[in-house]
Write a structure and sequence with these properties.
Elements (H helix, E strand, L loop, with lengths): L10 E3 L6 E3 L13 H9 L8 E4 L12 E4 L1 H7 L2 H4 L11 H4 E3 L5 E3 H4 L6
Antiparallel strand pairs: 1-2, 3-4, 5-6
């Protein structure tokens, strides 16, 4: 999966963690302005269920990469906001074992090496 052509000029790919970091305007909380993470998720993956939020698995608010976002309820999002709880997540949204394939971002998030860099996986 690659960034959508219409937004590629506003996305910088992190070479280590695979985050798609938004370089355009940010909102006051540090997220991509205009809910770009939601727009890009819906464009590349599909609709986000009613009442669901996108949890940034990488904990990087500027990240708009769909494989780093998981639709969850507000309760789950709040539960995962605790770094200790986040480290107990056994699998990524695609079902890969994070104990074997996980990487920890500088912000304390967890991303799946296989999902972030499928071309590097064996």
């Amino acid at each position: 999966m690659t960034p959508p052509a219409a937004y590629a000029h506003r996305i910088e790919v992190d070479p280590v963690f695979g985050c798609w970091l938004w370089t355009g305007k940010l909102d006051r909380d540090g997220y991509a302005a205009g809910h770009m993470h939601r727009r890009i998720f819906e464009l590349l993956v599909g609709p986000i269920g009613a009442g669901l939020l996108l949890d940034h698995m990488c904990r990087r608010r500027r990240c708009v990469r769909p494989v780093h976002l998981e639709p969850v309820t507000n309760a789950v999002n709040q539960f995962r906001s605790n770094p200790r709880r986040r480290m107990t997540l056994p699998k990524c949204p695609a079902g890969h074992d994070l104990r074997l394939q996980g990487m920890v971002t500088p912000e304390g998030g967890r991303v799946c090496r296989r999902c972030s860099w499928p071309e590097r996986s064996t």
